[in-house]
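Cross-posted from the bioinformatics board.
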Amino acid sequence: MAYKDLRAFLQRLKEEGQFVHVEQQVNLEPDLGACGRAVTSIGDNPPALLFDNLFGYEQGKRAVALNVIGSWANHALMLGLPKDTPVKEQFVEFSRRWDKFPIPVKEMKDAPFYKNEVTKDINLFDILPFFRLNDHDGGFYIDKACVISKDPVDPDNFGKQNVGVYRLQVKGKDHLGIQPVPMHDIAVQLRMAEERGQNLPVAIAIGNDPVILIMASSPLLYDQSEYEMAGAIQEEPYPVVKGKLTGLDIPWGAEVVLEGEIIGRKREPEGPFGEFTGSYSGGRSMPVVKIKAVYHRTNPIFEALYLGIPWTELDYMIGLNTCLPLYKQLKETFPEVVAVNAMYTHGLVAIISTKTRYGGFAKARSDYERSLRPMAWDIVRWSLSWMRMLIRLISIKSCGRSPRVSRPAKIWSLCPMSRSCRCIQPLSRRASPTKSSSTPLSRLLPISVANSLNPWTRRLQPPSGKKPCANL
Ligand SMILES: Cc1cc2nc3c(=O)[nH]c(=O)nc-3n(C[C@H](O)[C@H](O)[C@H](O)COP(=O)(O)O)c2cc1C
């Protein structure tokens, strides 16, 4: 079932009708961000998008892929299952394969990305067509790459080599910002390196097969190898190749690879960036990556994803793989646990069902602001997880004047009351950059792209009598 690279997966998506090749010319900004946002709203199983006619680039020389894993159909195909496999069955199969961990990797001598190599006068802008996703993003981002690093104290321990997805802000020709959240493995490794007065070597793989991206987004134990788990999930050893500069193991099928190091004890402003919570994260001091070598395939594909109010591609990438470890850990202590659903806003809400051990064993609480549309389940899920958290945050920060918050609009207007809340702004839906046509998509997309998606949206129209998707 294994897909050797992103291109093989896109081919499969095409065969299954889960892929749209946009041949019309698009601007990098704002078209790609608008398309990324809009595609998440079309029907129950949005397709992947590939753009290879980018304004400012020769056609076919550079491409951008969006929303590659952005539907349950695409997620099922990632697992090699039929595209209509129900989510529950995907969970059961994912769980069965998870238990096969570890499957040792397959070490390769060469890789397609070694075809083109740049080690002098590196200019990332020559290689990757960067664009901003949301209006107030502080810069260009690489937001869907695998970042690989080793444990500086135990570098030969393969299990401790980490593969994670961490957002990277492009700050210069060979210079990135990185946001390692303190509890994540890369932050642990950076702390160890800094305590020793060292830099942390990293390899950054962009444009990957879907299985390694799912594993890189999974909360594995510190000494569990994402590569060995990828082998278990795809039921075949995962192919890796050594980085020429860092000696790190890199996904063989990557489109573009950057090698360099996180500079120890150096911090620079990073952000703001529209995040999975549906609001902007603020600008903070974050570590910095210096790039020393770039390798890429000929005519590489830049894979990215849109982030914003759920659901977006990110929610498929961190849905079942957040539920599964929680389920397994809870089940060990509480055998009555039947299922765990931690798919809403990156597990900020977890819904756990149990059998009853005694009266009151399982206590459920579920409420949401009545002013929200109760039937708009996407918004209810979002409000249950993120908005409730904001309400708590604002109550704590308002120095005893606990404000009565009844609707989201009011929450936003309260933000300036506290310094820590000032950065929280809702993400706007992007406006169409060109004049509208009669299709609902054209409100969000450039007209040429909306037209190319039209057959798709028609196919996904609900049966007559049902209302179309609320977001459109
Ligand atoms: C698209 C995407 C972007 C992410 N960005 C970040 C980030 O900037 N910083 C971070 O610490 N985690 C980020 N994450 C979450 C981590 O990848 C995820 O929690 C992972 O399990 C971390 O693994 P580790 O602690 O095992 O290294 C992101 C996840 C996804 C899917």
